[in-house]
Amino acid sequence: MIRLHLNDHPLVAAARESRFKPHPLLQIPIFIGIYIASLLPTILPYVLFLLLKDANAPGDSAMDTEKLIILFSCALSALVVVLYCRFAEGRSLFSMGFVRRDAWIHYLRGIAVGFVFFSTVYLALIATGSVTFDGLNSKASLAMLFLFFFGFVIQGAQEEILTRGYFMMSLSTRLPAITAILISSFTFSALHLFNSGFGLLAFVNLVLYGVFLAVYMLKTGNIWGVCAIHSVWNFSQGNLYGMPVSGMNILETSLFSSSLVEGKEWLSGGAFGPEGGVITSAVSILAIVLTLLLGKRSSE
Questions:
Q1: For 244-290, what is each residue's pLDDT tens digit?
Q2: Which helix (H) or strand (E) is 132 found in, with range?
Q3: Euclidean distance between CA atoms 186 and 193, whole angstroms
Q4: In this predicted model, what pLDDT tens digit does every residue of 106-150 receive, in sequence order?
Q5: What is the pTM for the complete model shown?
Q6: Alpha-carbon distance 141 to 144, whole Å?
Q7: Which one, of 246, 261, 144, 119, lies nearest residue 192 by Cα?
Q8: 258 in helix, strand or coil?
Q9: In the list 210, 232, 264, 269, which could disulfide-bond 130, CB 3.0-4.6 Å?
Q10: Contacts of 250 (CB under 8 A, 6+ apart)
Q11: Between 177-190 and 200-220, two packed helices, what is the crossing angle to 10 degrees?
Q12: Cα separation, 20 vs 18, whole angstroms
């Protein structure tokens, strides 16, 4: 029988030592408030960009700059969430998964897992004829690839800190950890509700993806790995293989070019990207099972 031993997990135990443990019925409105508060610091950089941008700049260049500002400003959002956990809930950084021991090893391992995870999805898309590989993108810029990589490092970490490090672990102070995993995964998916091309299958896939990341975080005993997986998944999807990232189109800055095959959007995900197709459903379920079977829970 597959067991994760969630309720005696060191991170869960640390979260349950917090000073403020809101009732489960209050957790959702509090989360919404924290989410909105975390977005407020990102408004100023975006407004400054709109005011100062060069109207004569090429359209693609302006859009790339706009997307990079959004990605990098996620650092401010993450800071708001960490400050709430530390000073409002009185939680330790450890309870959010910020474990010092072997942090870089876990992060590098997460990079490998994220790359293999999405590459498996992409190769399956090619094999099923739902996507065609069009070779190198002549418009690709090495400098822009580096900027987008570090932008996604920040953005991926911000979403993991918000949904796993904060919300899931805060829920686990009052609820069974498996319930915390499911609620946080559904919430993570709902955050993408207004993204271009979002649909029912995309919602289901993002729930599955959230469950995988939650299980991986608890198996490894830290947040570093899932931050890396999330970031590299997004970067590989958009900037390596040239696919939409949860409805965001960054095809002009991708290393390779890919094209969707008409009529097979149920496989490729269409405008939302691979996260909206059944290929990702299958690979996500496989990833959850493998993590449960092969992973070893860290007690550090």
A1: 998 887 767 899 999 999 999 999 999 899 999 999 999 999 999 99
A2: strand 131-136
A3: 11
A4: 999 999 999 999 999 999 999 999 999 999 998 888 999 999 999
A5: 0.92
A6: 5
A7: 246
A8: strand
A9: 264
A10: 64, 67, 148, 238, 239
A11: 140
A12: 6
